[in-house]
Specification:
Elements: H1 18-33, H2 40-61, E1 65-75, E2 95-102, E3 106-116
Helix pairs in contact: 1-2
Length: about 120
């Protein structure tokens, strides 16, 4: 007989949440940006809405972690963009997921960090 799946609040490794976090970010970005076209006047609201919504949903999913959510929206152009992060953490509990979204006018990159409490 298979072991029952633990409730999400008993999960203590971010690796176990990565797939759910990635789906959550994708759904949120799709809902906020949908078919929108890049408009610099809307970017701050979009970024705020995406990060706040993802943060709220992560806390509902599992409260055994401190979360950091970062979102970048860039107008699509021929300019290059490179980014990198590094962390000193416990790989047995902590982790991150990065989601990239794009349409004809913009890119959106959302990174979620989960640090075990």
């Amino acid at each position: 007989m298979a072991e029952p799946v633990s409730p999400s609040n008993q999960i203590t490794t971010f690796l176990a949440l990565k797939e759910s976090a990635n789906r959550m970010v994708k759904t949120t970005v799709d809902n906020v940006l949908g078919t929108a076209s890049y408009n610099p006047k809307d970017v701050q609201q979009w970024v705020d809405t995406i990060t706040q919504s993802v943060m709220e949903r992560l806390q509902e999913l599992n409260d055994n972690f401190k979360y950091i959510v970062s979102a970048i929206i860039l107008q699509r152009s021929n300019a290059g963009f490179h980014t990198s992060t590094t962390c000193f953490w416990d790989y047995s509990t902590d982790g991150s997921v990065t989601f990239r979204w794009e349409n004809k006018t913009m890119y959106c990159i959302v990174t979620v960090y989960g640090v075990g409490i």
